[in-house]
Design goal:
It holds the Pfam family Nitroreductase. One of its GO terms (molecular function) is oxidoreductase activity. With 172 residues, the protein is α+β, with helices and mostly antiparallel strands. It has 5 helices and 4 strands. Helix content is 31%, strand content 19%. Helix 2 packs antiparallel against helix 4. The protein is globular, with a radius of gyration of 17 Å. 34% of the residues are buried. The protein binds flavin mononucleotide. The site of flavin mononucleotide has 8 residues, from strand 3.
């Protein structure tokens, strides 16, 4: 597990190679296997594999989403606020699991923050995506994960990255 954690980086440049369906499946499996508060399982995943849709998703917010127009796959992660008061935590851990499985598949992936972000002066990024993909209003949107085959090599981390002073024991 630590090998994957050290290797994983946010990758925003992808080749045009199609992403194998079985890899997408295993990434979704990882999301579905994530723990869930009170076993409520409020998460849903919308897989977008059409370039016109990914172009529109890249315009969800002014900054930080533009690379999605080159992503062969975007997965929108939602959580039903009517099912769970902690849908943010549940969707976050599912997203983390999916990022790690993407690395395990040797795919590049990056989290695009949607929750709390604006599309423009009149609408939130969440409203824009709900309208675009027909997502019901109770399905709150945490993030989009853009996925594809890595274009280029991004160095992983090593032990020098670890700020061990952030670790405390028994007392801050
Ligand atoms: C909660 C969260 C929100 C993020 N939002 C974005 C985003 O909107 N766009 C983006 O390109 N990267 C986003 N990232 C990726 C971070 O920029 C990235 O994790 C950080 O620069 C550290 O780099 P690394 O993932 O390669 O270790 C986000 C990451 C997290 C955890």
């Amino acid at each position: 597990m630590l090998d994957i954690l050290y290797k994983r980086r946010s990758v925003r440049r992808f080749t045009t190679q199609e992403v194998e369906e079985e890899k997408i499946d295993r990434i979704l499996e990882a999301g579905l296997l994530a723990p869930s508060s009170k076993s409520k399982y409020p998460c849903e995943f919308i897989v977008c594999d059409q370039s016109e849709l990914n172009l529109k998703l890249s315009e969800s917010k002014p900054g930080g989403a533009s690379f999605l127009k080159y992503a062969p796959i975007s997965i929108v992660i939602t959580g039903d606020e009517e099912k769970s008061d902690v849908w943010i935590e549940d969707t976050s851990i599912a997203a983390a699991y999916m990022l790690l499985q993407a690395e395990k598949e040797d795919l590049g992936a990056t989290w695009v923050q949607i929750r709390g972000r604006e599309h423009n002066d009149n609408s939130s990024a969440e409203e824009y995506i709900q309208d675009l993909l027909g997502i019901p209003k109770n399905q709150k949107i945490l993030a989009i994960i853009g996925i594809g085959h890595k274009d280029g090599v991004k160095e992983g981390r090593d032990e020098s990255f670890l700020k061990r002073e952030k670790i405390h024991r028994n007392h801050f």
